[in-house]
Amino acid sequence: MLSLNETHAPNLKSWIATANDGKTDFPIQNLPFAVFRRAGSSDQFAIGVAIGDQILNLRKVANTGALDLGDQNILSAIKSEKLNELMSLGAKSWSTLRKALSQGLREGSAAEGQLKSCLFPMDEAEYTVPCTIPDYTDFYASVYHATNIGALFRPDNPLLPNYKWIPIGYHGRSSSIGVSGQTFPRPKGQTKTPDAETPSFGPCKRLDFELEMGILVGPGTELGDSVSIDQAEEHVFGMCLFNDWSARDIQAWEYQPLGPFLAKNFASTMSPWIVTMEALAPYRTSFAHPADDPQPMEYLASEQNSKSGGLDINLDVLIQTEKMKSEEQAPHSLATSNMKYSYWTVAQMVTHHTVGGCNLNPGDLMATGTMSGPDATEACAMIELTKGGKEPITLPNGESRTFIEDGDTIVITGHCEREGAVRIGFGSSVGTVIAARNS
Description:
2 domains, SH3 type barrels, 11 helices
């Protein structure tokens, strides 16, 4: 588990003024990574670091020699068009780079003159998925979400017997994961209503969002190896916001006996910025299962995980309908929650993923599953918020929603703040659904 160091100091200020306003997601204590280029251009993508309202182009930084990184592997990695090479280097290299960036961006830095030439305005950038994602696994880590969903189908016994013993997950499809700004057509597939004799085919009618966190893998493992609970986060580069769009009516018909398929493989939207585990060090929390619940098995338990395995990340999901856009109305918040409600920690999910010998690769993505909290206002999917579509939500402009309609945009945001630490954020994950294609 990473400890606090000079890069977390609350009194640090940057020579970039917008990083010091106390409101930005991207103060000098954050320094998240993305892959960007000038919007609308055919420029080569580059790795960037967010600082205030600017992006520091790391390829240019490497070419200027403004920072003394002391490691040719790091210099090579930050010239890449994707983050995989940097992810593969491990925590020591990431920490070296973070310290050098922090020192170069601080007030009074001798590198200010050179680094100014490496800045790019954030509002003129476009992003791509920040790494090649070899594999994608979706977990089910909120007991509140699992209970809410289970209650719709099994009111007397919402949780299945294995839930409190094992981090539940399934392997999904990585090729349809997009970056914030993603627009996708409504999926089509087979559905069957309870009163129908046969299924029908067509666009889904119960499209949903899922507010999740994404976990990006750093160094990989060999096939057959497993990762211990106290080593797990050595294999995690950082985290992002994640919307795992779901077609609930397609899912209801197809998921037995093998689980989600077409209901989950048409689109998922991640935020462009990956916040490193080192940046998240000030926001760790203790972790424990309720005393009356089964306690984690030995391979999923450690003193370190109990002391600081949790993460205090505030989450918000908002909707902006086509009518709201046309009338220039801001997105409306549907639910807020927090990563600390997760029933399983990042380390437990990574450990369990490898315990059978499954290998990890740099850039693998693990999603937490819907991060719903204990309160009704913390239900982070429409199927929960509307009780399976039975209780529509009325928006401030008078529109109602049971599920997501064509033209709707869903925005997910996240940030961390705590007394004695500087507020940091994740930016946003923004996705829009349009009408299904005819062919």
